[in-house]
Amino acid sequence: MTDIAELNDYGADRTLFFIFGATGDLARRKLFPAFYSLYREGKLSDRFAVIGLARRSRTNEQFREDVRQSIQEFARYKGEEDKQWETFADHFHYMSLDINKLEAFQQLRGLADRLDETYDIGGNRLFYLALAPELFGSVSYNLRDGGLLETKGWRRLVIEKPFGYDLPSAEKLNEQIRQVFNEEEVYRIDHYLGKEMVQNIEVVRFANAFFEPLWNNKHIANIQITLSETVGVEERGGYYDHAGALRDMGQNHMLQMITMMAMEPPSRMEPEDIRDEKVKVLRSLRVFRDAEDVKSNVVRGQYSAGEMKGKPVPAYRNEEGVPSDSMTETYFAAKVFVDNFRWAGVPFYIRTGKRLPVKTTEVVVEFKNMPENVYFSRKTKLEPNLLVFRVNPTEGIYLKMNAKQPGSQWGIVPIAMDFCQSCEVGINTPEAYERLLYDAARGDSTYFTRWDEVALAWKFVDRIESAWREQSSELHPYAAGTWGPEAALTLLAQDGFKWWPVNGQHEGEVVWATPIVAK
Ligand code: BG6
């Protein structure tokens, strides 16, 4: 087993990367730019090669041109007029492949063996499936039967979400993959775990003497996690209408963020120890008893026509690929409990939706109020302390406290310490995919989801989905460009709380007080 800090001393291993779905959106927007950043930063040695695989026919030159364009458009570093570009591009190769044909994989083996020798890769193979999950099983079988796994180095399989549609389908998928790969060889991506500030949650919690002692139900009133998006379903209507917000964002990103907030400090800095702690959180999630329980704790909504930045936008039901009577949710909010000694009684409020007013990801920790009628609280209503992790698009940490109003007049004002990491000149944090690709190539599985995490997350979500099937009428409409259904406000109001504004944009509520910014 490898200690994470030790891993930091090494770059990525020598690796032959196989990108299945190399002409698709994910490869273009995220993977090629990620390779380039890693290369520019010296994190990939010269002993690597990439084989792009897709059905479309393409020469190596055409493929390299695709890669160049994607880097121009999406990378943190631009490839233009860059001396390193030519040497970088030489590592990219393309093969047109029908993933259902075993002969094609046998041919791929020939190419892989040749490249392995040319670049002195030592037999290490990373198979990245940027493909629909239905294909994971058959590609795995063909990799095995085509002889691609007979190599003297390591082999790893990197796969994208959605990992199944519910627990039974995820189990089936897992069984197929596991006929070919061991669990330790499977790297399941949840790209939120690759985000700088999501990884920072752990550090802020466990490396600061003044947070850890307060991190429990004695001092924390509630935790709020918001993943809001301004986009609608774009061209993904067909996929999205079968998934919905709960499966698309809840089962993975949101539950993963709960685990990062709630887990116990692992005893060792090793990937499996960290993942063990996350699993314990998922195991402690309070399961909704029945449909009534779901109804009282989970709100689902769907956007109707509205306005975004002054422009009219259509209702979800009028989006391309979406049936006009769709009952799929584009929003959900839920009150979730982690039933263990640390968290008993602390609600975790989570919400996500499409076509909300701002694109943002934030986690707010609301601390308990000072006792009422004691000293200052006797004279004035004190605002609760807040600690906010700003994940996206701003990356930073925000702390709200109470302090004396400057001047001779008596008064208490909320002040903010607002650390904006992404505003600092010179900090150009790596994209999530860069980190994850790098981690997979050096064998650090910390920020990938293990099978037991995936299974427990599905179990939790399936319970909600089945209640929704029984009560399909409980779908609240909300106009595009608004903060979602009223019922989501009630969810907190009935506990005496409110959603805190995100990025200071939440209209009609308390505005972030920033009279003094600590430097
Ligand atoms: C994906 C979802 O997992 O995450 C998308 O399938 C969503 O629907 C996306 O838009 C959001 O990711 P990010 O990094 O832009 O917040």
Descriptive report:
- It is built from 16 helices and 17 strands.
- By secondary structure, the chain is of the alpha/beta class.
- It has 2 domains: 4-160, NAD(P)-binding Rossmann-like Domain (Rossmann fold, 3-Layer(aba) Sandwich), CATH 3.40.50.720; 193-430 and 450-517, Dihydrodipicolinate Reductase, domain 2, CATH 3.30.360.10.
- The strands form 3 sheets. A 9-stranded mixed sheet has the order 16-15-14-13-7-12-11-8-17, with helices on both faces.
- The radius of gyration is 24 Å and the shape is globular.
- It starts with a helix and ends in a 26-residue tail after the last helix.
- The chain binds 6-O-phosphono-beta-D-glucopyranose.
- 6-O-phosphono-beta-D-glucopyranose binds at residues 191, 229, 248, 361, 392.
